[in-house]
Design brief:
Number of domains: 2
Strand content: 25-35%
CATH superfamily of the largest domain: P-loop containing nucleotide triphosphate hydrolases
CATH class of the largest domain: Alpha Beta
CATH architecture of the largest domain: 3-Layer(aba) Sandwich
Radius of gyration: 21 Å
Length: about 325
């Protein structure tokens, strides 16, 4: 019986019998499934719908080991509850704050670390990195060496947090291994666990990302997803609003300032998105679901998968948004 073979890009079991099933390849001698081959060479993304139950089972199994875990999160689109994965996995864990390059350079790494330390979640260490700019990757590797309990280290996080990008960066920086994980701005690119040997003392195990069903990226076409995901440092746009004025973020969201003193709204979204101030009498995007928030001093209004709006003073705002997309308020990150 032939030995089972798995795709080196996404971890799925390879098969040559059904072109409609995941893992299909026309040639079992190849290392990539057809899906990963097309993503890598043509940018042709095929959506694969997987339930979070499958992923949660994978994450819970990590808890049966004593291995170190790297929890990767996206600084622009940090999930609402960082304790979800932390509570699933009792192992030693390093929180890796990725995509530092999209936040303004004026924001100090120390301030970001202090923000997350104030949450009082038990991480061994918090490291700020940018895989794109190769920032602090050496420090992350140093922290891995300090806290790892064996050669195996798991990499976990939500979809599109940058897990595969980080592993590929570590491969290029510190390994002679030519394996490369499949990367895409869309969810469910990694379908199974993938083992990647960096060197004799470190093997990273990439895991499928937890799918956030309430992220805006799930409800956009691939062209718009590429527009929403920042490719370079965000240039925040600040608007002074008084009640009766509104902001449109492209065709994706509307924020009405309903009540309060003159207020400052700073928008942190991709530079490719158009932000426009309008009168609240304008009916643009009012067909979207309305949510009302009572903002306190120095709070962010977060739109999952899009970015966030920093509001300086207290006041009442109405947010118009796709009813499937999550929004919430938190203490200002910046």
């Amino acid at each position: 019986m032939d030995k089972e073979k798995y795709c080196s890009g996404c971890g799925v079991k390879l098969q040559d019998e059904n072109v409609l099933q995941e893992g299909y390849t026309a040639n079992l001698d190849h290392d990539l499934c057809q899906r990963c081959f097309r993503i890598k060479n043509y940018g042709d993304y095929q959506v694969v719908v997987k339930s979070n139950e499958e992923y949660l089972t994978v994450l819970k199994s990590i808890g049966q080991t004593k291995n170190l875990v790297l929890y990767i999160t996206d600084l622009l689109n940090m999930e609402k509850d960082l304790t979800e994965i932390r509570n699933l996995i009792p192992n030693k864990m390093i929180l890796v704050l990725n995509k530092r390059d999209v936040l303004p350079k004026s924001v100090k790494d120390e301030k970001l670390i202090q923000y997350f330390e104030s949450m009082d979640i038990p991480f061994e260490k918090i490291v700020v990195i940018s895989t794109k700019k190769n920032q602090n990757i050496d420090d992350l590797l140093k922290q891995i060496k300090i806290y790892q309990t064996s050669s195996e280290v798991y990499v976990v996080g939500h979809t599109n947090a940058g897990k595969s990008s980080l592993i590929n960066k570590l491969l290029r920086n510190y390994s002679t291994n030519t394996q490369e994980l499949t990367m895409s701005p869309l969810p469910t690119t990694t379908l199974n666990t993938v083992r990647i040997a960096i060197n004799d003392y470190l093997t990273l195990i990439d895991t499928p990302g937890l799918v956030d069903a309430h992220s805006m990226t799930n409800y956009l076409d691939p062209v718009m997803v590429a527009k929403v995901c920042p490719k370079k440092e965000i240039k925040p746009k600040t608007y002074q609003l008084k009640p009766g004025q509104s902001l449109l973020i492209d065709e994706l969201a509307r924020i009405d300032y309903v009540e309060g003193e003159r207020n400052s709204f700073t928008v942190f979204v991709s530079n490719e998105l158009k932000v426009k101030r309008i009168s609240s009498k304008n009916n643009a995007l009012k067909d979207l679901e309305k949510r009302t928030y009572e903002m306190k001093y120095e709070e962010d209004l977060v739109i999952n998968g899009l970015g966030f709006i920093k509001v300086v003073n207290k006041g009442t705002v109405d947010l118009y948004l796709n009813h499937n997309v999550e929004s919430f308020v938190r203490k200002s990150l910046i």
